[in-house]
Every structure is written in C-alpha cells, then in structure tokens.
Amino acid sequence: MDAETALELMGGIARWKALHDVGVRAGELARAVAAGSVLRPGHGIYALPGIAPEITAAVRAGASLGCVSAAQSHGLWVHRQHGLHLSAPRSVRDVRYGRMHRLRQTYGPLVPVEVCLRQVMACLPLSEALVIAESAVVKSLVTVEDLHRLSTGRGSKRAGRVIEAINPGSESAPETLARHTLQEAGYTVVCQRRINRVGRVDLEVEGRLLLEIDGRVHHSDEQSFTEDRRRWNELTIMGLDLLVVPAKQVLAYPRSILVPVRRYFAERGDTHAVASAVFAA
User: Fold this and answer.
1) β-strands 13-15, 64-65: how paired?
2) How far apart are CA 15 and CA 6, in angstroms?
3) Helix or strand or coil: residue 42?
4) Which of 25, 97, 173, 176 could cross-link to 77 by cystine, CB 3.0-4.6 Å?
5) What is the pLDDT of residue 226?
6) E-state strands within the chain
7) Which own/partner pairs from 8-11 qualify as long-range (CB within 8 Å, at least 24 positions apart)?
8) Nearest to 65 by CA among 7, 126, 112, 130
C-alpha cells in the first residue's frame, strides 16, 4: 500500500509503526516526504498536507482529539472553544497539550461522534453541550434515542438535561442559544414557526412575538437579501410583530436576546411574561 492511501485510511495522520504494519515501505515513505505529498510534523509522525494542527497535537501526545475539539472536526456546531481536549487511556501521561479525557480504549486521531457527544454532555456547560448535541441530531449523525443510550452511567442526570432540551427543528447555533435562553427565562418558545405567505420564522415567543436570528451568511446574495425583506414586510402587513436580532450578538452574549423581548412584553403590559422574565433574571 502506498503512503498516501494508508494515511487517508488512518484519518490523515499516523505514526511510522502503524504505516509499516499495513505494508508501507520506508523507502516509499521517504520519497513521498521528499515530493511533499506526505509531511513529517513530528518524530516518527507522518501526515497528509492540510491536516489540522490540533489533530497533529493529539497524535504527538499519543492521544485522540476529543470532546469539544472533536466536535468541531466532525462538523458540528460549536459555540465556544475551550482549548484543546484530548482522549487517551490512563497509560498516556502527556497532558501538556490540553485537557485529557480518559478512556479505556484507544482510537485514531479523532474519537467517533458518539464518544465525542458523551464527553461533551459530561464536560461542557448545558447551553454549549446543547448546541453540539442538537446539531448532531439535526445533521442526522445520531438520534435522540442514541443520545439516551449514550447517557447511561456516570453523568447521566447532566446529560439528560441536555437531551431534554434538544429540538431537532433548529437550524443554527445562534437559534439554539436564543431558544434555550428564552426558555430558561420562563418564556414559551416555538421553533421554526410556519406562517402562510411567509414560510418559517426562526422563533415564536408566547404565541405572539416572532424572532428572526439574522446571520450575515444568509444574505450572501441579492436574492436572499430581497426575499427576507419581502417576508418581513408581509408579517407587518399581516399585523404580526417581529424582532430581528443579529446572530453575531447572540453568539457573543446569548442573554442579550432577553433585552428586546422583555421590553416588548413590558411595554404591552403582559404581566405574565414580565413576571417570568424578572423571576429568571
């Protein structure tokens, strides 16, 4: 087997012994390194060009990328980074590179999605774990039933809170954060509310206020920009109330979503909604 093919099968990076075990010859590997089709990022470590530096750090430590670090590599939504999170058996003692999650078995350079999610639900704050776990369900990488199965044993109560808060209808991390923040503050929230002639609106609060979490990525072309304005105008013509909140603002400070929502209900004398919001403040 040639070096490039072997590395592709091993996740893009491996130690010399692993490559030798699958039939890669030393001379062929040396030629690949000389040609630049294979890199040597560390002693006895070989990788394909473009391998993420955090994965290289994991392999150097004799570990796998885990938890929130693995979530990003798996393409899941991640609200905040928490430094490098690695996974390895207790026999691996090199913890210079970041936080180490201990496992009974070893994996490749990256732990599987299910292992990653189990670690995330046990390690991260509730809202940040929710963003990652919910995206895994939205992307059909796991089901809610899979998550319940993963949450048995130690940390199951904490994981249960994350799973209970999941809504498969969410379409982005800012939307998940906004919904969760409002629900924690005592508001009733419907995700992806469908309205005739408008389509789906991100969130509906207390059955009367509509919220759009507006991200710049969704307005990258003139057509989508114009369509959103048509939809928002249609809501006004129909007599429905809409607030548009920047996604970047929600990501930076999720509780900022409460400011315009509280003002909306306070100025309309909605004592129930105001009381719920003040109690949760």
Assistant:
1) unpaired
2) 11
3) strand
4) 173
5) 85
6) 13-15, 39-42, 45-47, 64-65, 85-88, 99-102, 189-195, 199-205, 209-214, 241-246
7) 8/48, 10/108, 10/109, 11/55, 11/108, 11/109, 11/110
8) 112
Closest residue by Cα to residue 210 from 177, 184, 185, 234? 234
The closest alpha carbon to 39, from 48, 50, 52, 28, belongs to 48
Q: Which residue's structure tokens are 């919001």? A: 277
Return the SS3 of 90.
coil
For the chain, list the domains and their CATH numbers: 1-51 (1.10.10), 52-168 (no CATH), 173-280 (3.40.960.10)
Strand pairing category for 209-214 and 199-205: antiparallel
Enter the pTM of the model. 0.84
State the SS3 of 185-197: CCCCEEEEEEECC
Angle 99-104-108 (CA atoms, 0-180°, nearest 5)?
70
Q: Which two tokens stand for residue 170?
A: 């969410």
Task: Give me the torsion for CA of 158, 77, 140, 228, rounded to 10°.
Answer: 120
Tens of pLDDT along 255-279?
Answer: 999 999 999 999 988 755 544 443 3
